[in-house]
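quick one if you have a minute, typing this from the bus. theres a chain ive been looking at and ive put its sequence and its fold in token form underneath. please have a look and point out which stretches look like helix strand or loop to you. anything you notice is useful, everything is just below.

***
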Amino acid sequence: MGPRGGGGRGAGLGYQSGRNEGAEDELTGFGGPGGGRYRRSVLEASILALLAESASHGYELVEQVNGVAADLVCIDPGSMYRLLRGLEQQGLVRSSWETADAGPSRRVYVITEQGSEALEFMAESLSLRARSMQRLADQAASAAAKAKKSHSKE
């Protein structure tokens, strides 16, 4: 696994996950060109970051992701489990059954070494994206101020 080529529209965070690209919008609930890839990449980075901090089960991850990245994405439990299965198939997480004292057994997920490497790459990509977005925001604010000043002279 390695960096994704290109960097064009909707290139996500750039980590080649080997997933089925056609299933993206189903997992995120949002359509549009590139939107699914971006949202899925944000979800993957969020999940791996949370699992790097501690092992967790799917429903708990839904709540945590919604707390961490709710302004960027939302995810339901069914989609979370499909995404976790995909991350497990890629070798980025692994799971095991945990038998609880009370209640049913549940699958607990942990990040793998390969997942940690992918998360490091994703963190770098997020930083690059954040800097680019800040440059764009600064340019847009400056241009809006100039346009406003120009219109007030008319």
Notes: Confidence is low (pLDDT under 50) at residues 1-12, 17-34. Residues 21-153 form a domain with the Arc Repressor Mutant, subunit A fold (CATH 1.10.10.10). The radius of gyration is 19 Å.
